[in-house]
Design brief:
Radius of gyration: 32 Å
Strand order of the largest sheet: 4-3-5-12-6
Number of helices: 10
Shape: rod-shaped
Number of strands: 12
Helix content: 25-40%
Largest sheet: 5 strands, mixed
């Protein structure tokens, strides 16, 4: 089946509004003959005369009267679709955004982000989702609007990103732990029992790679899938947790935090989104809010 010429909708809208081939042609900058040919095409497409002569003028048929409001609505909607987006009005914006974040992000940055969003756009809701694995599926299918995380491999072309902040690893123990006092050394650190964080259940990570050149290694006695779980175990036992500093600041309240006695790589936490939302004004505003909250925090 041949695809209909949608330009005919505009022609039909003007014809039904004017009730005159001549006046319709003038509005559309078409000659009378071109306008007559367009009317003929419309008659073939609809199977109806649409406009018939009555005395010296034209009158619409019942089918034309039936179509008039529908055609007007379709044309107006098409005009709205093709019109540039108007300036974003945050005061009246009503929208829900889903943010998939790593463990600790909401506790650390959520309060400031909610306050900022609430002041600027009180009709916006934020739905925070726990990030359990790394995959772009939720970004692609619209289940997630924004995501935070460490980029380990090259992103797919349809996923965009911007760095939020860099983080470094620190050691954390309960306040009464033997490691809470005295000079920290690699030997003291590795002689303790450790809890390791890995969503995939791995028993080694960046900290273990950093220890390997010195010939050392830590005794990992348990593996958990999140920083909050690791810190909960460390707070209630003699286990040592090694976690990102900025990401877990709020989670480490009341515990003893110490610098690691060996060099470990810093990690960059980034903000990710799908390319289809890149030009969306409301989404761009929310991205800027997240960036501002994380960067301002880094200056404080």
């Amino acid at each position: 089946m041949a695809r209909p010429d949608l330009n005919l909708l505009v022609t039909l809208d003007v014809l039904l509004d004017e009730g005159s081939v001549t006046r319709a042609g003038e509005r559309l900058a078409l000659s009378p003959s071109a306008m007559s040919r367009a009317l003929a095409r419309l008659r073939r497409a609809t199977g109806d005369p649409l406009l018939v002569r009555a005395g010296r003028g034209l009158v619409p048929t019942p089918r034309a009267l039936e179509l008039r409001d529908r055609v007007r609505g379709l044309v107006q909607e098409a005009v709205e679709v093709l019109r540039p987006v108007e300036k974003l009005d945050l005061a009246t914006l009503e929208r829900t955004f889903a943010l998939r974040t790593s463990d600790g992000f909401v506790e650390r940055f959520g309060p400031a982000l909610m306050a900022k969003v609430g002041r600027q756009a009180p009709g916006v809701r934020l739905r925070f989702l726990q990030k359990t694995k790394k995959d772009a599926g939720p970004l692609r299918d619209g289940g997630v609007d924004l995501e935070t995380g460490v980029i380990e491999h090259a992103l797919a072309p349809d996923v965009l990103s911007k760095p939020l902040f860099t983080d470094r690893f620190v050691g954390v123990v309960r306040s009464e732990h033997p490691l809470s006092t005295g000079k920290m050394t690699t030997a003291r650190f590795t002689s303790s029992r450790h809890v390791h964080v890995s969503r995939r259940g791995l028993t080694e990570g960046l900290v273990d790679e950093a220890l390997r050149p010195a010939g050392g290694g830590r005794e990992i006695v348990t593996v958990v899938d999140g920083f909050s779980a690791a810190l909960a175990l460390a707070k209630a036992s003699d286990l040592v947790a090694t976690v990102p500093e900025r990401h877990t600041e709020n989670l480490r309240q009341g515990m003893c935090t110490f610098e690691l006695p060996f060099r470990t790589p810093e990690v960059t936490v980034s903000l990710l989104w799908h390319v289809r939302l890149d030009a969306d004004p409301a989404h761009r505003w929310l991205r800027d809010c997240v960036l501002d909250v994380c960067r301002f925090d880094g200056q404080g």
